[in-house]
Amino acid sequence: xxxxxxxxxxxxxxxxxxxxxxxxxxxxxxxxxxxxxxxxxxxxxxxxxxxxxxxxxxxxxxxxxxxxxxxxxxxxxxxxxxxxxxxxxxxxxxxxxxxxxxxxxxxxxxxxxxxxxxxxxxxxxxxxxxxxxxxxxxxxxxxxxxxxxxxxxxxxxxxxxxxxxxxxxxxxxxxxxxxxxxxxxxxxxxxxxxxxxxxxxxxxxx
Length: 206
Fold this sequence. Notes:
Elements: H1 11-25, H2 44-51, H3 60-68, H4 70-75, H5 80-88, E1 95-98, H6 99-102, E2 108-115, H7 122-135, E3 141-149, E4 180-182, E5 187-189
Parallel strand pairs: 2-3
Antiparallel strand pairs: 1-2, 4-5
């Protein structure tokens, strides 16, 4: 950094110049910007005021997105595009339905917002309504705001019912025995037949 001080300037001025030189030589000028997406957070209210957009109730991320679109929103203010782009800074899934899309009255329109991670409280609804009225034209009439909240649930519920009946006859009885013996071969064969069993106790039954 070159000095602007001349030899005849007071020593106090030279000291101030030297101090400024020490400070500004290490300054990263790339970090100095007034672009909404990259600027210091403290500049956001100033930029919002300069571009005439309201960021009341918006998060820092939402404010940056809205301010970054401010010039285009001002140029196309009063159009469906402006409403849609303003809403998408806060509600990325916002859809604007004009009257001829759903058979409504002329100049009427609806806004639909779908979300899985935004809770709709009074503040959120006020923000949604304010953005619509800030960028719609005077003759257009907001007919309805449709809110669709999707809930993702990974759990699985199942129900199975199994019924069965076991019949057992007690005591076990041998019902048939055959003994076939051939003297010449000296062999014996036994045939057994088992009846289905049931747990029926006939004790005490006459």
